Amino acid sequence: MKKFYKEVNLNSRIEMSGFLKNHFRYDTMGSNARVTSYANCLKIPSLGLEKDIESNLLQMIELPEAYEVTNLLIDEFQMAHEYKYQAGFNGRSDGYLVLYRGNYDHKLDRIVQYPGRGIDQGLQCNRFDITSLQRKTKIVQEFDKLCDSIVKNAVDLATNFTVCEEVVNIPTKVKTLKHK
Fold first, then answer.
1. Does the pLDDT at position 28 exceed 90?
2. 43: Cβ–Cβ under 8 A, 6 or more apart, which residues?
3. Domain boundaries defined on the chain
4. Do 2 and 48 contact (CB within 8 A), yes or no?
5. Rounded to two decimals, what is the model's pTM?
6. How far apart are CA 123 and CA 113, in angstroms?
7. What is the pLDDT of residue 122?
8. Three-state SS for 72?
9. 3-class SS of residue 90
């Protein structure tokens, strides 16, 4: 199973710079916008899972309840960062988890996400003091831990549950024309 989190020496400017510069990035608004942010590919076939687990997950992908814990994990991450950093799925098949900038708008009492604002695009680490570099590294590491938690949850789900098809009859009220 693929792991995203990597240990980084937070006392080494070189190691932190390398980690941030070499981290996978994704276009947040399509490649034409040229806005990127830290991301990880969570496409099921790319996770290095056992074939039976992969097959079960591919069947579960259509079920809303399969995403309940994933959504909770993302919500916890966002709350921990006071919504200044948010995670969301992106890509044609929603196969990438991307780190976004965001905020909580107290006036409107809602969460705001800024996918058009890249994070650390064209990062020049020598411009940051060690404390700022450590903060940036920790945020990306926490994002990577979030990705690991999402994958672990998916594997647990596929290990302990299976998709079953049931026929459900739903009574429906319809209007028809009736001759007077």
1. no
2. 93, 95, 96
3. 13-160
4. yes
5. 0.89
6. 21
7. 81
8. helix
9. strand
